[in-house]
């Protein structure tokens, strides 16, 4: 039986929610902070979004979503265009090739796996920026960004899990 126009529209909107939510989170994350003495390093929000959806619902955030999220991040953060896209798409690739590992695993295992993935992503992004711009990111800023990314994951994962529940709930 073919879905009605309304059902098709609702399904399309539901499929776009993770990407739109990720865009909103990236926009919030790059908002200027004026806290005196604040180390200018923030969590890699795009990485957290792509990682969560790749682990739990890879069909809702494909490579195109990761690519577009990376381009937006690069534009907003004045990073060389394509660097964040490369990192996010490689993150998706790593998670999707290891998908069997993630299925049915408890939160602590996926958080531990994020620690490994985020470390690689942080180092890859820093290396790409250094090669393309000649600017070497301070180790303290890298460590702060990595640490904030890991600390923020449980909060975002909880919110994403709630969103995932609402997306899969019958209309």
Structure description:
The structure is a single chain. The protein is mostly helical. The chain has one domain (16-29, 39-168). Helix content is 75%, strand content 0%. It has seven helices and no strands. The chain has helices at 5-29, 45-56, 63-77, 83-97, 99-102, 107-133, 139-168. It is globular and about 60 Å long. The model has no long low-confidence stretch (mean pLDDT 89).
Average residue pLDDT: 89
Query: What's the assembly state of these chains?
Result: single chain
Radius of gyration, whole Å:
17 Å
Head-to-tail CA distance between termini: 17 Å
Biggest sheet statistics = none
Instruction: Name the beta content range.
Output: under 5%
* Total of DSSP H or I helical runs spanning 4+ residues: 7
Overall spatial form? globular
Give the ordered list of helices and strands. HHHHHHH
Sheet/helix structural class? mainly alpha
Spans of at least 5 consecutive residues whose pLDDT stays below 50 are none
Count of the domains:
1
For the secondary structure, the number of strands is: 0
Helix content: over 70%
